[in-house]
Amino acid sequence: MYGLIWLTDLQSKISTIDLLIMLTSALCHDLDHPGYNNAYQINAQTELALRYNDISPLENHHCAVAFSIMSKPECNILKNVTCEHYKHIRGGVIRCILATDMARHNDILSQFKSFQPVFDFSNKEHKEVLMKIMVKVSDISNEARPMAVAEPWLDCLLQEFFHQSDSEKLKGLPVAPFMDRDKVSKPSSQTNFIRFVLLPLFSELTKLFPCLQHIVEPVRRALQHYSDLESASQKGTSSA
Ligand SMILES: Nc1nc2c(ncn2[C@@H]2O[C@H](COP(=O)(O)O)[C@@H](O)[C@H]2O)c(=O)[nH]1
Ligand SMILES: [Zn+2]
C-alpha cells in the first residue's frame, strides 16, 4: 500500500487522513485470520459466523480485532485525533476492511469501472471506492512481486486451501473446487486467478493510473509461466 501510494502520487490527490485509513486498513485487514475462509465459517457454523450472522464473518472479525488493539493505551495510534476525525477514520477503516471479502469483488470492481473515464478525486463516492480498490489490490497482488518472493507465499496459500478442503471432506461440508487438491494444481489455480481476478482488477486501476503499468508486468509473466506449466502437464497427461 505504501508503494502504491507513492507510485500513484496519491498524497497529492486525497487527504492525509484518507491515506492513514488506507495504510491502517492494509496493515490490519487480515488480523487473527484462522486460515479457514468465510464459506467454511458459515457452513461449519463457527463462533465467528454466529457472532456476525454469516455476514463477512472474517472481515468483521479482522476489523473488530484492529479496533480492539487500538483501544489499548499503548497501541492507540489515534489517541490524539479529534472525535470527528476518529469517526471518519473508523468509518473508513471499517469500509476498506469489509471490502476485502472476495464475495464482494465483482460488485466493487463494477462500481469502480462505472466511474471511468471521468473519475473525480473530489467526489466522495468515487474516492471511497478507489480506497477500497487500493486495499483490495494490496491484499491480492502477491503475483506482482518477483517470482522468488511470490511463490513461497503462493505455496502457503495453497497449503491453507488444501488444509481447509481436507477438513471439509472429513466433516461432510461443501468443498469449493478451487480449494480441492483433487481438482486444482498450482498452475491451474494461478492461471484462473490471474486471468479472471487479478488482471481485470489491474486493468481498471491502470486506466486511472497509467504509471502503474510496470507493476502489471510480473503478473503477466507469472500468467505465462503458469500457463506453460499447465500446458506441459496437460500434454504429459494426454501422452501417458
Ligand atoms: N489462487 C489464488 N488466490 C488468491 C491469490 N491471492 C489472493 N487470492 C484469493 O484471495 C483471497 C484473499 O482473501 P484473504 O482474506 O485470504 O486475504 C484468498 O483467500 C484467495 O482466495 C493468488 O495468488 N492465487
Ligand atoms: Zn482477508
Structure description:
The chain has 240 residues and is an all-alpha fold. It folds into 2 domains: 1-139, Orthogonal Bundle (Catalytic domain of cyclic nucleotide phosphodiesterase 4b2b); 141-234. 68% of the residues lie in helices and 0% in strands. It contains 11 helices and no strands. It has helices spanning 2-7, 16-28, 38-43, 47-51, 57-70, 83-98, 105-114, 124-140, 147-171, 186-208, 213-239. Helix 2 (16-28) crosses helix 6 (83-98) and helix 10 (186-208) packs antiparallel against helix 11 (213-239). It is globular and about 65 Å long. The N and C termini lie far apart (46 Å). Ligand LQESDW3C binds next to helix 8, helix 9 and helix 10. InterPro entries: HD/PDEase_dom, PDEase, PDEase_catalytic_dom, PDEase_catalytic_dom_sf, PDEase_CS. Keywords: cGMP, Hydrolase, Metal-binding.
Number of strands: 0
**Segments where pLDDT lies below 50 for 5+ residues?**
none
What percent of residues adopt helix (DSSP H or I)? 55-70%
Question: Per DSSP, what share of the residues sits in E-state strands of 2 or more residues?
Answer: under 5%
Which ligands occur here?
A: the ligand Nc1nc2c(ncn2[C@@H]2O[C@H](COP(=O)(O)O)[C@@H](O)[C@H]2O)c(=O)[nH]1, zinc ion
N-to-C span:
46 Å
Mean pLDDT over all positions? 96
CATH superfamily of the largest domain: 3'5'-cyclic nucleotide phosphodiesterase, catalytic domain
Largest β sheet strand count, sense and barrel closure: none
How large, in whole angstroms, is the Cα Rg?
A: 19 Å
Examine the coordinates and then state which fold CATH places here, giving the name of the CATH topology of the largest domain.
Answer: Catalytic domain of cyclic nucleotide phosphodiesterase 4b2b
Number of helices: 11
The H-and-E topology, N to C, reads as HHHHHHHHHHH
Whole-number count of domains: 2
> What gross morphology would you assign?
globular
Binding site for Zn(2+) 1: 29-30, 139
GO molecular function: 3',5'-cyclic-GMP phosphodiesterase activity; metal ion binding
InterPro entries: HD/PDEase_dom, PDEase, PDEase_catalytic_dom, PDEase_catalytic_dom_sf, PDEase_CS
Keywords: cGMP, Hydrolase, Metal-binding
